Amino acid sequence: MKNEPIVIERKLNATVDEVWKAITDPVVMKNWYFDLPGFKAEVGYEFSFTGGKDENNQYLHLCKITEAVKNKKLSYSWRYDGYEGSSLVTFELTPDGNSTLLKLTHEGLHTFPANPDFAKENFVQGWTEITKALQEFLSKQSV
Which of 18, 38, 74, 86 could crosslink 14 through cysteines, CB 3.0-4.6 Å? Predict the structure, then answer.
């Protein structure tokens, strides 16, 4: 269904503290996500980055933290400069022994324009690759 959110779940071989640091510490984030100098997991904090499917299709992403509960949940709005629509990305962390269950949800994609670069499949592929990069990063070293 078009309005259904993307939900990706992964078991991460790291504690909730380590995963939280990986998704909120800008020094650690740039190892698996984007380089976001000065990033703060605080409600109201705004950040941006440029990214896209390839070098010819780059978009300025404008994001704002909407919820930050240490070691539990991080949510931020996600939109594109110059385009209609706004979505919400949420990382939810659940301890599982010495591991952490990550549930990533990206909802509101249907509000974006009918641009092939904003197709749901591209987001599924992107978040699958990004969460895999996080999983691999955490398994190779302690944060």
Answer: 18
CA–CA separation, 137 and 1 (whole Å): 32
d(CA 104, CA 128): 10
Q: The dihedral of CA 1, 64, 51, 36: what is its sign?
A: negative
Q: How far apart are CA 76 and CA 73, in angstroms?
A: 10
- Structure token pair of residue 11: 């078991």
Q: How far is CA 143 from the centre of its chain?
A: 18
Angstrom CA distances, 115 to 35, 59, 119, 120, stand at: 26, 12, 7, 10
**Taking every pair of C-alpha atoms in the chain, what is the biggest distance, in angstroms?**
44
| Tens-place pLDDT, residues 80-121 | 999 999 999 999 999 999 999 999 999 999 999 999 889 999
User: What's the DSSP call for residue 119?
Assistant: -
| 129 CB-side CA count, 13 A | 9
